[in-house]
Amino acid sequence: MSGNDPTGHDPPVQTPSPERLVYLVQQPSTDDSGDEMSLLELWQMIAADKRAVMLIILLFTSIGITYSLIATPWYRADVLLLPRESTAGQGLSSQLAQFGGLASLAGINIGGGDNEESLALLTSRECARQFIEKYDLLTVLLADQWNAETKKWKVSSEPVPDIRDAVEYFEKDVLRVTQDRKTGLVTLTIEWTDAELAAAWANAIAAQVNELMRERALAKAKMNIAYLEGEMARTNLVSLQQAIGRLLEMELQKSMLARENEEFAFRVIDSAQVPKKRFKPKRVLTVLASGVAGLFFAFFWVVGRHQLRPATSQS
Fold first, then answer.
1. Residues 110 and 260: beta-carbon distance below 8 Å
2. DSSP 96
3. What backbone phi and psi angles, to 5 degrees, belong to 77?
4. C-alpha span between 215 and 126 (Å, rounded)
5. What is the pTM of this model?
6. With 60 as the cut, is the pLDDT of residue 201 above it?
7. In 103-128, which positions are buried (b, 16+ CB within 10 angstroms) versus exposed (e)?
8. What is the pLDDT of residue 35?
């Protein structure tokens, strides 16, 4: 029995009016399950706009094909190098260890370190600058800024390009130097738009580094020999004369090695050959990537189009 009804009977059930039913039907549902799109609905949307999807994929693929055909080809030439140890220094380093103090005063390196210097020189800006100046490559490397007809730079308001810009471009986009830590082998790579120039530049840089290291070794040995000869002339101690004589012997061997060996710093294991195939752009990968990009674009286009259609129809 209900305490609210004095007659003891349940209150009658009130039936909603027609206006109330219409209001309830028109209210949006709070269930979010309808917001999720099933794979079947997605497939139906794609099938409904299959012509547009195919046209989008075809458009992107055509762009990829066109780019792969007209893009400037780049070629890669490699030189495999083996750093040379200082033979004279290695042969006498154990014998001259006791004279390290005297050698350090003369600026003579007994323990080696030539390999690190050679590798540092190979990747240095100084090496790139000398190479560019020697072969007059400033306008070749910066050809997009050079007008070959007027023999003038295209830029007017900006600073005129100079050797510093060419060196930066050469180190960033043309020259690659890598070393295998296990074998010690060094790979010098040149990437350029001309296959013959790529191979020629790679071999020329390897030869230039060897020449620069030879010149440095000869200059250093000449200076050390002059210093040691002066010290020997000023001393009367037999033990000190013997020590200086050993150091002189080492410097003479270094000088002779530098004069007779063209591959002073690096031994060329495999010289660069003119590449037959481009390494970029890769045409097949470019076309496939363009097709995949078109597929994704078409997918988002179809989904966005169908998502906006209800709002457009309501407005």
1. no
2. T
3. -120, 135
4. 15
5. 0.67
6. yes
7. beebebbbeeebbeebbebbbeeebb
8. 47
Tokens (6 digits) for 194: 């001309």
Residue with tokens 């050469």: 170
Q: Reduce the DSSP state of residue 142 to 3 states and report it.
A: coil
Both structure tokens of 153: 């730079």
Q: How far is CA 273 from CA 7, 79, 278, 282, 307, in A?
A: 111, 8, 13, 21, 58
| 56's tokens | 């989008």
Strand order across the 186-192 sheet: 175-179, 186-192, 75-83, 266-270
Q: What is the pLDDT of residue 38?
A: 67
Residue 214's H or E segment, with its range, is helix 195-234
**Three-class DSSP category at 186:** strand
Based on its alpha-carbon atoms, the radius of gyration of the chain, rounded to whole angstroms, reads 39
Of the chain, the percentage scoring pLDDT greater than 90 comes to 30
pLDDT at position 310 over 60: no
Q: Which residues pair with 9 in a beta bridge?
A: none
Question: What is the distance between the alpha carbons of residues 102 and 242, in angstroms, rounded to a whole number?
Answer: 12
| Cβ count within 10 A of residue 136 | 8
The answer to whether 138 touches 153, Cβ cutoff 8 Å, is no
Higher-confidence position of 79 and 237 = 79
Q: Which residue has the tokens 């830029």?
A: 155
Q: Which two tokens stand for residue 104?
A: 């350090």
At 279, the amino acid letter reads F
Q: Kindly state the DSSP code that residue 212 receives in the 8-state scheme.
A: H
Hey, what are 311's tokens? 């709002």
